[in-house]
Amino acid sequence: MLTENYEEFTENQRKILEKYVSDVDTHVFVIRNLPEVIKGALFSRYSRSTLGLRSLLLKEFITHSEESAFTEIAGCAPNGEENSAQEQIAAIQKAQNFYDRILDGYGDDSIGELGGAHLAIENISMLGAKIIEDSSNKVINYIKEKPSALIQFLTGDTLESSTIDQCTVIGAALAKLHLAAFDFDYRHPNARGNEWRDNVANELRDVVSKEDWQLIEDELSFQRLNQGDTLPKGIIHADLFMDNVLFDGDQLTGIIDFYYACYDDFILDIATTVNDWCIDADGTLNSNKYESLLNSYHDIRKISSAEIESFPLTLRRAALRFWLSRLYDFHFPKEGLDVLIKDPDDFKKILLLWRNRY
Question: Where along the chain do its domains lie?
Answer without folding.
Answer: 11-121, 125-154, 164-357
